[in-house]
Amino acid sequence: MTAGPLLLGIRHHGPGSARAVRAALEARRPSVLLVEGPPEADAVVELAADKGMVPPVALVAHATQETGRAAFWPLASFSPEWIAIRWALDNRVPVRFIDLPAAHTLAEPDRTEDEATGTAPEPAPGDGEGDGEGVGDGDAEQPAVPGAGQPEGGEVLRIDPLAVLAEAAGYDDPERWWEDVVEHRGDADDPIAPFTAVEEAMTELRAAHGDGGHRRDPAREAHMRLRLREARKEFGDEAVAVVCGAWHVPALREQRTVTADRALLKGLPKVRTEVTWVPWTHRRLGRASGYGAGIDSPGWYGHLFDSADRPIARWMTKIAGLFRDEGRPISSAHVIEAVRLAETLAVMRGRPLAGLGETLDAVRSVMCEGSDVPLALIQDRLIVGDVLGEVPDAAPAVPLQRDLTALQRSLRLKPEAGERELDLDLRKENDAARSRLLYRLGMLSVPWGRRANGSGTGTFRERWRLEWQPELAVRVAEAGIWGTTVEDAAGARARSDAAEATTLAELTTLAESCLLAGLDEALPEVMRALADRAALDSDVGRLAAALPALVRSVRYGDVRATGGAALRRVAEGLAERVCVGLAPASSGLDAAGAAELRGHIESAHSAIGLLDDEELRGRWRAALRRLTERQATPALLRGRAARLLLDEGELPEEDAERLMGLELSPGNPPAQAAGWVEGFLAGGGLLLVHDERLLGLLDAWLSAVPRDSFEDVLPLLRRTFTAFDSGVRRSVGELARRGPGRGTGTVAARGHFPGFGEEPDTARADAVLPVLRLLLGTPPATPSVTPSPTDRSTTTASSPAAAPAVAPIGASS
Questions:
Q1: Measuring CA to CA, which residue among 108, 59, 449, 431 is closest to residue 271?
Q2: Which of 18, 609, 748, 759 qualifies as a FRET site for 345, CA 20 to 30 Å off?
Q3: Does residue 151 surpass a pLDDT of 60?
Q4: Which residues touch 522 (CB under 8 Å, ≥6 apart)?
Q5: pLDDT tens per residue across span 376-422
Q6: Helix 523-536 to helix 486-500 angle, to the nearest 10 degrees?
């Protein structure tokens, strides 16, 4: 390396680079360390030495007036920048960041949709997109949140430096080449030599390909040169060390005038910014997460960095421990054989040390018996991992973040990187408070938890799935504009949303959220907006669609001990208007409109049943009965209304048969009759199993459908019957094969069921008696007379006439 500042060109998140950086700093021991990163972070860099700072972490910069516009600079325990910063702080060496200020990068205009969501084409190493894939720069990572800025512009290099170097060395896989020459390289006698070689390679590449086509690199490198010039003037050339992406090293060696560099920075847009530290995760370091940080295997890289000796043997031991925890029988012999096979594969492939590919091949062969399925577990738990970093309390944070942190501690609800389930019992004070916190965060667009379908039937239980994502820290900062506490911010957001709501459904959902979140102060204002909107809305479909959310809110209000009286009045008013307007609203609908209204009717039916108001239920049943008789109502809705009334016990079976007979009469078009059948049987087909008279009517109608109309009817019937359980379909088929309707009355009235004989088989029934006596502890009885198998009149000790089929426990014989 030439005389002058120590320029350490590194690969972002590269453990080999990290070890080499530490060795170079120990050898040169500079007086000042310059690191590629936002200069605004100079104020918080000292926190990296705090005992409470546990990587992976990230520097986050966000615009003061638009907190959703943010950028991240993630650092893992094996990142060269992190190792360099910790070395400097431990040795009392000042640290300065020299990249283009975040005030400029966050002031860039909005990107295209792909760039704004982190789904731009895969960046090449060194392009400023968090280039850990190669020997690039390690720039800011773009958060996948609405409105977030992307600090690096999104352009993609025309070349991949790592791929070019790998190809020159005869490798077809750049990642494999990097592992062989850097990650698996032993300690060199000269710790500076690796960086000299990388600088020479980057110089040749830049001479051949220019700056790679990244439009912001000239300005960034100009700012780096200016900061480097200041440090050299203050400390001297030999006392300065720079850690930056290897792609930029040749540019920092260039001799440019101060005037020329300042000209490149003149006129750049600028915004006010704030910088702090936030926890990060290994999953967010992975390229698959959409952030472009550039490494597929952060867990593997962390292992390589931490394991100074025998990394392959230690890695295989970790895999064995994981498999054992999952119940797979893995022995020490498996581990030994897997290590030997991985090392043998490395020799056969000409590699200095077994890499991740060789270890996975060995594990697949030795521990997984050739199956790839268990490898997914290794990928998730070890190769990537669910490590979540920690940030000390001293790190700057918005007041809302501090309140959230205090709530998380008081409620014993620690953020975790991996997904976990949380079961809450709302009758317990702490669980109810947890539920309110999660709902309030959801209203603030901080989706830490999402509701999961629980197995309980009561409204006092909730099941959540929690997973803390690093970008949620930015969401919290963005939500800080609504208030300084979670409760105040959620209430302010609810009032604002109520004022801006344009539909009744939005307001009912908002009212439900306010009750679930326990926002008693915001609820009255939301309720006034809801009542005003409901009074003006005359669409029965929208009213019926809004009713379930209101009724759920009333029930949750009771469970959570919050006031739901006003909400009940609004819900009852909506239900009244739905009852009055249902019949007129169902007239003249096409097939799509009828299907949509059918869903609203079913929802309203369930909701009105939950209101526990018998008078209101009576009016609703009357409205449904009117639907069954109105010919202007689509057949689908007439059939559905009839079935709802039948299930409620409000429609006698004789009336149901009469309605079905009328609808399936030859005078009605087959398509209309099929629509009625679809609506009537939508609640399940078990009704046809237990009442063969209805099945007989349906069978007779279907047999009489003309050939030219059958193809039009078939899709409707198929859609209806495929919704039945397989057992119901089988039973209906048995009845149809035998000929339904040949008897009179229901199946239960005739005393037999489909699939069984006409008379019970007593011999088969008696066979269970010895087992029952054994289970109940009753001594077996010895028959006095051995009956003929066909003589059913002979009384024996084993016959039902001589002994009870089931004797009381402990009874004597």
A1: 108
A2: 18
A3: no
A4: 490, 491, 492, 494, 495, 498, 514
A5: 999 988 998 878 888 998 888 878 888 999 999 999 998 887 788 99
A6: 20
